Amino acid sequence: MKTIIEVKNLVKNYKSKRAVDGLSFDVMEGEILGLLGPNGSGKTTTMNCILALLKFDEGKIKIFGKEMAPDAYDIKSKIGVVFQDVAVFDELTVQGNIDYFCGLYIQDKNTRAEYVEDALKLVGLEENKTQYPKQLSGGLLRRLNIACGIAHKPKLIFLDEPTVAVDPQSRNNILEGIKKLRDDGATIIYTTHYMEEVEILCDRVIILDKGKIIASGTNDELKSLAKIEEKVTVEIPEMNPKQIGALEQIKNVSAVSYENGVLKLVYNRGKNNLADMIKYLDDNKIQYNKIFAERPTLNDVFLELTGKELRD
Amino acid sequence: MFWHSFKYAFSTLIKNRALMFWTLIFPFALALMFNLAFMRLHDYDVFEPFEVAVVNDAGYDKAEIFKEAFKALSEGDERLFNTQYVSKERASELLENEEIEGFVYIADDEPHIQVKKNGSNQTVLATAVEQIMQSSQIIEDIATQKLSESPMAYLNAEQIYQNAVATVAEAEPNVKDDSRVMNMVVIEFYTLIAMSCMQGAMLSSEMIDRALPKNSHRGKRIAVAPTRKSVVVASNLLASYSILLVGVLALIAFMRFVLGVEFGANLGLICAHAAAGSLAATMLGMFLSIALKTNSGAKNIIVIIITMVGCLFAGMFGGQKGWFDSMMPFINKISPVGLITDGYYALYYYEDLGRYWMNLGGLLIISAVFLILSIRGLRRQRYDSI
Questions:
Q1: What is the ipTM, given to two decimal places?
Q2: How far is CA B262 from CA B176, B259, B289, B316, B355, in A?
């Protein structure tokens, strides 16, 4: 597999604050790489450095094997970018906006017209093409933002938090569209602080915090870093401290908490954990309602590595 | 690529209602308002002479020149005064009863004026008396030095009349002499054209904001495209300049053919001046967009401040252009508003085009300065922060 992006020892300072601290990573052809991290972790700054929008203090960036520069137009022609903020013209229709931005890459009118139609289809805005951005809902506007960034069928796509503040239907549509772009052969860099999206979409994930890579790998590789094996949540109307203390003694339990009628148990390893817990509840005649069991998430990994939640 | 960018820049700008209103529609509305405000001036087809009195005593008898001059101003269809020659007591009585606007009496060989209140009529009276005094001095000098056989021939009542009317025209425009009143009125309209040109800086500022990644999200998207920044900037500038120039020329046509404002006959130079004024404003807008990292609202406020201060110095808010020209002559030489206004003024009033070319040249120099400064800013390719 070809290396599409090579970032070596990237350092970017904003005056005295170090925003990106010695970042090095590669992006391989055809993969979706997730850049995951809380707000202010350096995801967008890294992206802007790669795109030659920002000066950086140290490091080297190569895209398609060539050094990236503001006037590297041959590289830029193969890149599509969807910025976090919606960047469209209120005075143009949906179709007009896509045509304008696509026209910065594609000069031939007929080809462009085809590409615009394809982009409309991809984001599901065919029926809205004559509408103006102000007539669109937040979710549809995000979809338009994406269409404007990818209509020219780029080989490398940067998506910076494209699903911020969108409704579930639009989010699903966007995520499906991104998968389709990958299936069509695009390489994608996806920055987000939504770990669920990364888990659904990304082949590989880089977790950033304070401008540094704190972990990277596939979802499973990252989750294996977590010390916990399983989390169980049980709705229990009433429990006393003695019962909670007794639960801590059950095999493999590493932590117990009870708050607002919800009991949470964390197991660090082992099998049949759920059965043991249910047996204890039944033996002690403790009434319970719903029970949820889940595997560790990337948030748990992040929590273990940094001591804070991803969305903090 | 250039025309693709131009087409959309033009189309988005023309659909921006707020910008179009303030830069294109508002000057038309203001021109109409100016016209309504100044329409009354043309209703004063005849200057109404007003009542005054002259104290007819021994002092008056001795003041030959004054007698002749005041008589000239009190006779004929185009007289300034309806004059009664009465005793001082009677004059005081008439003034007290407001039957006259004022009276003149001679004491110590000099005319003195007595008025009850201040107003344009009193100003005309005072100016006329002062002008007579100045003429008297010239005539006396000519007589003393025996430079002429008939020194009274140097008494120019017409000149006194003109100066008195002009003085009041400066303070209050409701006077007869149309040609002099037009001095003020046309300047108001010329400053309005200058204002319209200058408001165009908002258009170019907005268009450059759109093209630069540090100023807008759309600029970021354009910056990552394989399109030269210079192409997008040039096409955006051309779009804003075209719209502005068409708007300004339409405003001039509206003023000339609908409102009847005089511009002179040289159509080519009238248009050239509009083009140069619009160019200066367009370059100013580009410079502000590049130099300032503020939102477009703040930049628009700066454009409005520059424009309105320029309009003040150029004479939009009354007859102070002459005062500023004499007290602070450099202001109107470096202000685009001053250069635009004075260019039109020169085109209309002077046969010689020297003054016009100076103004046109000034506008082109200002445009070049802003362009050079802007290019320096535009050459930056990566930013420390965006």
A1: 0.82
A2: 18, 9, 36, 17, 18
Suggest the residue from B7, B8, B20 to mutate for an interface test with chain A (most A CBs closer than 10 A): B8
Residues of chain A with CATH 3.30.70.100: 230-295
Helix B296-314 and helix B178-211: axis angle, to 10°? 160
CATH number of A230-295: 3.30.70.100
Q: How far apart are CA B361 and CA B356, in angstroms?
A: 9
Ranges in chain A annotated CATH 3.40.50.300: 3-223
- The arrangement of strands across the sheet holding A3-14 comes to A17-28, A3-14, A58-63, A66-67
Q: Is A127's Cβ below 8 Å from some Cβ in B?
A: no
H or E element at residue A249: none
Look at A148 and B221 and tell me if their CB atoms are within 8 Å: yes
Coil/strand/helix, residue B218: helix
Q: By C-alpha distance, which of B220, B326, B189, B180 is closest to A158? A: B220
B213 touches chain A (CB under 8 A): yes
- Sign of the Cα torsion B14, B18, B19, B24 reads positive
B18 touches chain A (CB under 8 A): no
Question: Domains in chain B and their CATH numbers?
Answer: 2-40+178-378 (no CATH), 50-171 (3.40.190)
8 Å CB contact of A54 and B386: yes
d(CA B159, CA B163): 6
CA distance B13 to B247: 13
CATH fold group of domain A3-223: Rossmann fold (3.40.50)
Tens digit of pLDDT for each residue in B213-232? 888 889 999 999 999 989 99
- CA A62 – CA B267 distance, rounded (Å): 58
Q: Which amino acid would we find at residue B264?
A: G
Give A161→chain B minimum CA distance, Å: 14
* Cβ-nearest to B12 among A48, A91, A149: A91
Q: Say how far apart CA B212 and CA B44 lie, in whole Å.
A: 55
DSSP labels, B12-51: HHHT-HHHHIIIIIHHHHHHHHHHHHHHHHHH--SPPPEE
Asked if B213 and A53 come within 8 Å (Cβ–Cβ), the reply is yes
**B214 backbone dihedrals φ, ψ, rounded to 5°:** -75, -15
pLDDT tens, position by position, A131-175: 999 999 988 999 999 999 999 999 999 999 888 878 888 888 889
Dist. CA B98–CA A94, nearest whole Å? 74
Test the A interface: residue of B2, B203, B206, B221 with most A CBs within 10 Å: B221
pLDDT digits (tens, 9 = 90+) for A195-211: 888 888 999 999 999 99
